């Protein structure tokens, strides 16, 4: 039974990796501004997936612990566009996922914040895998981001739009913006790494509905907490902008699609946690999506160019894959 559960967990992890690594692709073609409109609409998509999960799981009750996990996610999600504009989708994702990997693993491995301590079957191999995965992140930190041209906002004059689309030289990103974006990957990764922390001490116990609680039990609560927090963030932002928030209407459908993909990935991530334990699931699903994301960045968006950077990216991916394999085998 354990082997079957492990296989199911790995299958869910693979699907979640594809969704996580692809969820930002729809919005990269459009001007997202400061990203706060995107984060709000994407959390709407996340909530829609949560409602579907609510029906499938026979209407589990809403729990504050699950909502708190969603709050952590929404706060991290609000920073992602700023990061991607500064250092790119691939580099940004790979860096904050490195922090997520370390945070999620440490919480599960050492039983932080009231969580049960999870020790894998092969503890030494698990630790080596974490070190190797983090070493792969060092390769990604050296990559140079080449900004891509995005579709101008629709309220620009047609002449300005044509001029913008005809420009061949992308705008340069200032050093200050790069530094800010790089620093923001730390709190973003820490927030993502603690998404399941508030509910970890409740998993496996009897809930109010007299059912054994799993991570999936809290998914709707998680999505509801994310939507609530993202709405609060957007309201405060709108007040700060004196009721003139940056809203690109062409970003609406792509942001919703991004949220649906992220919601599906998160539901699979919760399912993976049930079968692989967070000490294995977090490192895999924190780093593997960055590989998918980097493939999009190279082949579709051309954010990473040049022989040196491509070789560094390939080396980082290979090292990361070795670490993921070690972490996976440590569970068996």
TrEMBL record:
Pfam families documented for this protein: TMEM144
Broad class of the protein's primary localization: membrane
Residue stretches spanning the membrane: 37-59, 66-88, 94-112, 124-143, 218-239, 251-273, 279-301, 310-329
Signal peptide: none
A cellular-component GO term for this protein: membrane
An MF annotation (GO) of this entry: carbohydrate transmembrane transporter activity
Compartment(s) of residence: Membrane
Keywords noted in UniProt: Membrane, Transmembrane, Transmembrane helix
Protein name as catalogued: Sugar transport protein
Species the sequence originates in: Dictyocaulus viviparus (Bovine lungworm)
